[in-house]
Amino acid sequence: MLSRYWYAHHVMASAEAAARQRLVVALERALPPLNTTVPVNLNCAIATPVISLAHVQQLGRHRPRERWALAHASNYGDRVTVDVHGNPTNHLLLVVLHETVYSAASAVDYFQTYHERDEDQASYHAIITRSGEIFYTVPAHKRAYGAGNSAFQGEQVQTNLRIAASVNNFAYHISLETPLDGQNANLSHSGYTEAQYRSLAWLVSRTQVPWQRITTHAAVDLGGERADPRSFDWQRFAQYWQPYHRLQQHYCAMLANRQLPARESNAS
Ligand SMILES: [Zn+2]
């Protein structure tokens, strides 16, 4: 016979499971994970602060406007698992930030134009307009041509003998639309809008990339020509990124917990 203690415990456990399920659904809605097919080093084991359903739903209300503006297939390629020399590629995902210099519309125009020559082919995965709207131009699982001759802490992949090695194979390229006073080669301009920082924080968090693997085109460029994104305010970005990061960490931890029983049974 089942005791009422068992019954009380059972009811509490199922109520807890239902609450957890509601939280996972809300987390997925607020910050849908972006699948780039490139691995990310998730630190789910770290204990995350308790987060309420109301808090998640509140953050979820700031979801940016998104739309597709797919680039022409000549301007991007596949992410390869073996480089041009036959070595396996095993880098972790890297977020590379850029700016458009000219309008977002002109960048989309360029990416949607067929380019025959390797040196003319270019693209980002996403562009964030002045109003914070996100234009997705290359699918996340494809290799956008955002940075030519480039490396991140020595990491680079060569996919074509005629083209210098770059970070493109493991990068997710995001570009911010430049303000009007930056449509030139000056060293700085008036910067990006709050809406852009907010949307950027949301999009970067969707990739699940940790802070130390968020970089800029200027930092990875080996040609010494790229300075973008100019006038980028890291502190402002960090302020918007933190809450989303906590959300993402919590989601990650909840998924890890949910998978625990299955892992235990696999091991036995
Ligand atoms: Zn760039």
From TrEMBL:
Keywords: Cell wall biogenesis/degradation, Hydrolase. InterPro entries: Amidase/PGRP_sf, Amidase_domain, NAMLAA_amidase_2. One of its GO terms (molecular function) is N-acetylmuramoyl-L-alanine amidase activity. GO terms for biological process: cell wall organization; peptidoglycan catabolic process; peptidoglycan turnover. Residues 81-230 form the N-acetylmuramoyl-L-alanine amidase domain. Signal peptide: none annotated. Transmembrane segments: none annotated. It catalyses: Hydrolyzes the link between N-acetylmuramoyl residues and L-amino acid residues in certain cell-wall glycopeptides. It is an enzyme of class 3 (hydrolase). Its EC number is 3.5.1.28. CDD domains: PGRP. Pfam families: Amidase_2 (PF01510). This is N-acetylmuramoyl-L-alanine amidase.
